Amino acid sequence: MIAAAAFGLSSCASPAVDSARPATGSQTGKSTAHNGEAPEIIADYPSYGSVDKAVDASTIVVRGTALNSYEATLHPDVDVTAGTPETNPQYGMDEDDIDVDAMGVPRTITRFKVTHVLKGAVKPGDVIKVSQVGGTDTSGTKVRESGTVLLGEATANEFLLLLVDNGNGTYSAINPQEGLFAVNEEGSLTALSPDSPSASTAADLSVYEQAAR
Q1: Rounded CA separation 208/70 (Å)
Q2: Cβ neighbour number for residue 189 with a 10 Å cutoff
Q3: Which end of the chain is more exposed for a tag (fewer CB within 10 A), N or C?
Q4: Structure pTM?
Q5: Per the record, where are the segments of Low complexity compositional bias (predicted)?
Q6: For residue 21, is pLDDT > 60?
Q7: Under a CB-based contact definition with an 8 Å cutoff, are residues 150 and 176 in contact?
Q8: Is the dihedral of CA 102, 105, 108, 114 positive or negative?
């Protein structure tokens, strides 16, 4: 099942609806560049507060390796009749006045080879697509999401991912802080995000294996 989430972009007065959102209830906005820096996408994700809750929220929990990546633009579904002006900024607008292209959210899709399955209906050897916010926007400007390290840019050889099914052939992390980890040879974990909360993540792979049983 796909749940919608609002995307508000600084380049457009009204946010859009994302039908392939990173995680339930997430909201994303693209900030304006400052002092020549690249624009930053700021997202509001749900947080889980414990390993057990994070695993329970995941459609699949897998270990594996990142293969190649490519970029895509997520164009929102717009409904000018749904909700209220408070919950849907496009409410009541003329659809001809909405620039859907300007509201596109750049994403990076990484092909990921599964080597171990802790939870979910995938199997070792499967290659899945993991979608992360960030990439090149329609103007050719590279943008990044606050707190997100793209799998294709991480230096680890193996990862542990806690993912939700977007319903469109891709998966996304439950959030960047609690859903993306590097795995070392001894089975210890390092969160990819520098903002990862130590209180709700574990440094050992066995904790996630136990939670997934």
Answers
A1: 29
A2: 21
A3: N
A4: 0.77
A5: 191-206
A6: no
A7: no
A8: negative
Nearest to 80 by CA among 99, 97, 94, 62: 94
Query: What is the per-residue pLDDT across 83-131, written as a single tens digit (0 to 9) for each?
Result: 887 777 677 777 776 666 666 788 999 999 999 999 999 999 999 999 9
| Single-letter amino acid, residue 101 | D
Question: Is 31 within 8 Å of 42 (Cβ atoms)?
Answer: yes
Tokens of 113: 């080879």
User: Residue 69 in contact with residue 163, Cβ under 8 Å?
Assistant: no
Rounded to whole angstroms, the Cα distance separating 163 from 151 reads: 13
Both tokens assigned to 57: 């929220």
How far apart, in whole angstroms, are the C-alpha atoms of residue 6 and residue 12? 13
Q: What is the 3-state secondary structure (H, E, C) of the chain?
A: CCCCEEEEECCCCCCEEECCCCCCCCEEEECCCCCCCCCEEEEECCCCCCHHHHHHHCCEEEEEEEEEEEEEEECCECCCCCCCCCCCCCCCCCHHHCCCHHHCEEEEEEEEEEEEEEECCCCCCCEEEEEEEEEECCCCCEEEECCCCCHHHCCCCCEEEEEEECCCCCEEECCCCCCEEEECCCCEEEECCCCCCHHHCCCEHHHHHHHCC
Do the beta carbons of residue 174 and residue 163 sit within 8 Å? yes
